Amino acid sequence: ELESDLDLLKKENELLRQAIESADGSVAELESELDAAGVSFEKAEEVEAPVPAPPADDAQAEWSPAQVQPDGHAMEEIYGTPSVPEGDGTECLRFDPTLWSHADHIKERYGRYRSLRHAIDENEGGLDAFSQGYKKFGFNRGEHEGKQGIWYREWAPGAKALALVGDFNDWDPKPEHWAFKNPFGVWELFLPDTEEGESAIEHRSRVKCRLESESGEWCERIPAWIKWATQAWDEVQFNGCYYEPEGTSEPGVYEADKKYQFKYNRPKKPSNLRIYECHVGMSSEEPKVNSYLEFKDDMLPRIRDLGYNAIQIMAIQEHAYYGSFGYHVTNFFGVSSRCGTPDELKAMIDEAHRLGLFVLIDVVHSHASSNSNDGINLFDGSDGQYFHSGAKGYHWMWDSRLFNYGNWEVLRFLLSNCRWWLDEYKFDGFRFDGVTSMMYHHHGLQMAFTGNYDEYFGMQTDLDSVVYLMLANDMIHSIFPNAVTIGEDVSGMPTFCRPVAEGGVGFDYRLQMAIADKWIDIMETSGSDENWPMGDICHTLTNRRYGEACIGYAESHDQALVGDKTIAFWLMDAEMYYGMEVDSQNDVVNRGIALHKMIRTITSALGGEGYLNFMGNEFGHPEWIDFPRDDTYDTSTGEFIPGNGGSHDKCRRRWDLADSDALKYKFMNSYDRALMHLDKAFGFVNAPHTYISRKDEMDKLIVFERGDLVFVLNFHPYNSYTDYRVGCLKQGVYKIALSSDEGVFGGWSNASKWTDAEFHTQDGDYDNRPCSMQIYAPSRTAVVYAPAEWCDSENETVPGLGVKEVGPYYSF
Length: 812
Hints:
By secondary structure, the chain is α/β, with parallel strands linked by helices. Helices cover about 25% and strands about 20% of the residues. The chain contains 15 helices and 35 strands. The strands form nine sheets. It has an eight-stranded parallel β-barrel, surrounded by five helices. Strands 27-28-29-35-31-32 form a six-stranded antiparallel β-sheet. The two termini are about 50 Å apart.
């Protein structure tokens, strides 16, 4: 039936074409006859076609311009060159002279780093070449004895024999499919193309290596450097997949089974990182696993419109267990096949770059899945190939394996993995997961860091791991100067965010993890709102080392997981099911929405030099994340853990709630959008000037300056203050640039940009500030004041935001 419908459509199109040609011919014949008869006529004046309206994609072009490149333009990578390390590593101590008491430790680790760099330069041709192991290991097209074909190389020093098996040989290795082992424990195999010039292994066909361990046992493993691993619908285990498309698409054009060619240049490194933490698989509104292409088409425009300038993508590295949230990696060089192919991911990243979005990958080098069937655990049959042997190589809480960062081939594997994601997929940087676990022999377990320097620089510090992190940051920043690295460290390791050349660990940012814990602690233990501690909030938000940048966040994916609660759920709980209609009045919901906006305001403004939000939390996504899972047991306690029947119902994002005009979720969504655009206009998130002038425990009011802006937050549950005097640095006239009390944000408009009120400063010391002004501070409201010359209440390009044009310090 489908074929007949298509045939019918083709016939109709052909008849239409013939009719048009016939009509054109008739008109031309009539014109000739009239001309021969001496009848003159004038052709109708051609009317210029109207300029089409700009596409919806450009509706926010003023705030979020998209990159434009000519047809055929291909992205060109610009590489840097690693420099020779110098010095003794003590330059990082200039920010904190008290660290000189532990200078010997810092010199020791820097000395190890320099020695390792020298060895890499001497034996591997430098850090640049060493970090491109993927061009040698795994599957690569190449030549041998004048023949074109496939090279396969695998480091498996503990194996006695190794063969390649798969669909290409019906899983039965022939004599020519057995590899040879070189003196360095690397197995090598060359498979020449057929006489017809076809590849010995078909694109997208299944492959594994079959090897004999030292004990004589035979096993099959997915190649450690595999680019793609897939799971058939009727199989439990994954298989390696030989991925080598033959053709190449035009730049910026995705075509199935063709190599994707990047078109758009990398965005410049943002001065103010506003990170949207996201998970492709659970990004759909429907209860399913979403795809890279769907994320490209549906999610990227939403993120851009919200005002974020970076996305941090979780669960890209292949992980056999979906419920691990991507943190139990099995295939380090493979993209998660649940969401699509490697080239579909590339198309998604290229589109993000077109929209101006910086793209970070959540990379896991702190541990690996203990799954030996699908991953690299026990790869060659030995316990200590990639990992430490025995208890030292096992993380009892995570049920995972711990890398031996002192092993040369492990360093090649991990450094090349960093380079792979930057070079092959054009990611712009990393969030390194679980760094605290890496840096200490105790892995941060049952350890409360007090700030005593002996906790960071002593026998409990794993220097091999720290030196690996220094090497990784050195390679990333020297070869990709535009790249950004963020470390998930809860310990507060000094020098963590100082450059490697100074003797630091080399990260650009540390995740400020204590902030989210503080908000949960306040909501869980404070009782009434009158008990919220203004001073404690300010201390937690600003408690970070000078000269070491942090990413602040009120909540991330950790707080959204099953067993925990998001901030919105802590504030409103079950009332979110009943009181979110726009025309309803619910005291719990009204309080929750008001505080949700205030928490995000003060966290973004004081919590760091960058800001992060997890997907959906901007609009107060209800409930928790629960991945589809079966019944299981806790590996450390043996406790039975019931599953959810494999349901995706709570493993999705309910965008319909935020988009509905009938529900109050839209208020939180709109406020978060305005807040992010305020940072675009004024750059307050990373502004060098920060001063907290008031932390009033009685009035429950916090006043602070960030850049040119003055923030006034009244946390009091019922007291509003008229003619309240607040200090400020700069004299002049101020106006309201943003108020959480705007009607468009679900407020009461008691403090609103629409009043267009001017607030004139008065000279004279107040709260240790040279100037002050009198304002109205409604209860449970955050109000941001800006210099009047940069305020425009009539500018509604971002509803609720009162900024003139795009502000004085606009930055995408």
